[in-house]
Specification:
By secondary structure, the chain is mainly alpha-helical. The protein is 82% helix and 0% strand. The two termini are 21 Å apart.
Length: 92
Amino acid sequence: MLLFAAALSSFPLPLSVFAPAGLIIGSLGSMAAGFFCSLMSREKGFFYGILCGMLLFIILFIVSLLVWRQKLEFYALVKLLTMLLSGAIGGI
């Protein structure tokens, strides 16, 4: 996720690109976290993948509350569902 953030900040991009890119990057990070968590535990990959996705979403949501003063909106719920789903897929 850090490499994607560095790549996005190195090019001049319009602001409309950051929301979908954040969703994709968060989903990929959630998938990787679910994969490595299930790889280390060797059991319950689906459940641990969902937990990893939820934990990453909570961290990103708290940061967005503190930095950008965003509220819980429909887009946040979409991000939560995609991160949970991609974490579960990564865990499988």
